[in-house]
Specification:
It is built from seven helices and no strands. The protein has one domain (2-165). The chain has helices at residues 2-19, 27-39, 48-75, 80-95, 101-117, 122-160, 162-165. It is an all-alpha fold.
Amino acid sequence: MDYIWLILSLICIITGVLGSLLPVLPGLPISWVGLVLLMLTKPIETDVMLLSVTGVIAIGVGILDYWIPAKGTKAFGGSKYGVWGTNIGLVVGLIVPVPFGFIWGPFLGAFIGEWWFASRKGNEAMWAATGSFVGFLTSTFLKLVVSMVFLGIFVTLVWNHFSLFF
């Protein structure tokens, strides 16, 4: 049974890392569930403090994930259409086979959102799109760093108990 928990935990951790880059997957909560599943194995003792701290961090970063792009957009004079455009542009950028679509998509989405729906023209739409994009990149980077820390915790725990697993 330990192998099943270990495999499910690894799948959750990897999915969480991918989810930190993709807006459709709740990356950090999935990574945290991976840590919980790892604690269900017999070789690793349940560390309530570790799970509590990582859980609070996952919740905090989840809240910041909504707050940072909105603040970035507002700081550059953007609207909610820029934020929505960023998220929609990311999904489209991932689907459309364009080189670096995950980078171009959010920026173009924010620009279109500001230009088309918020009726901003030229430099004003470009500036607002830049703010939305900077906020998006900042929150994505934060999620990626935390999910990689969760992956590091997973690897450390498995490595320290390697002989008990294999």
